[in-house]
Design goal:
alpha+beta, 4 helices, OB fold (Dihydrolipoamide Acetyltransferase, E2P), three-stranded antiparallel sheet
Length: about 130
C-alpha cells in the first residue's frame, strides 16, 4: 500500500499536500481509504466557496457499497473542487495521490498542518 512521505494524513484517512508557499493545500483520500470504500461512483462537495472548520464535513463520497462523509483536515476556505472527478470519479481509486485529489483549500491557520500525521505515524494506524 502506498503512503507517500511528502504528504500529511488524518485519522479519517485523508491526505494533505501543502503548497510550496504554505497557503493552500490539496486534499484527497488515501490509498487505504479508497480500497476500503471500493469503486468510487460519485462525489458531492457541499462546501465549495465556503469557510469550513477543521473536522467539519465538507461533502460526501459515494462508492458502490457505501456513502461516507468527507471531513476537513484543516480549517480553511474551500476554493476549488477537482471537476475532473465529475466525469471520472474512479480517479480517486486509480490515482488517489495525483489526479484523484478532491478539493483545494486556502488555509486559515497554516500551523494546523503540524498537528497532522506524517507518513510513518499514518502507516502505524492502517497497520492495526
Amino acid at each position: 500500500m502506498s503512503i507517500p512521505k511528502d504528504l500529511r494524513y488524518t485519522t479519517d484517512h485523508e491526505w494533505i499536500r501543502v503548497s510550496d508557499d504554505g497557503s493552500t493545500c490539496k486534499v484527497g483520500i488515501t490509498h487505504f481509504a479508497q480500497s476500503e470504500l471500493g469503486d468510487i461512483v460519485y462525489l458531492e462537495i457541499d462546501a465549495l466557496d465556503e469557510d469550513v472548520a477543521k473536522d467539519d464535513p465538507f461533502g460526501t463520497i459515494e462508492a458502490v457499497k457505501t456513502v461516507s462523509e468527507l471531513f476537513m483536515p484543516l480549517s480553511g476556505h474551500v476554493d476549488e473542487f477537482n471537476e475532473v472527478l465529475d466525469d471520472n470519479p474512479e480517479l480517486v481509486n486509480t490515482d488517489p495521490y495525483g489526479e484523484g485529489w478532491i478539493i483545494l483549500i486556502q488555509l486559515s491557520d497554516p500551523a494546523q498542518v503540524e498537528e497532522l500525521l506524517d507518513a510513518e505515524a499514518y502507516a502505524k494506524i492502517v497497520a492495526t
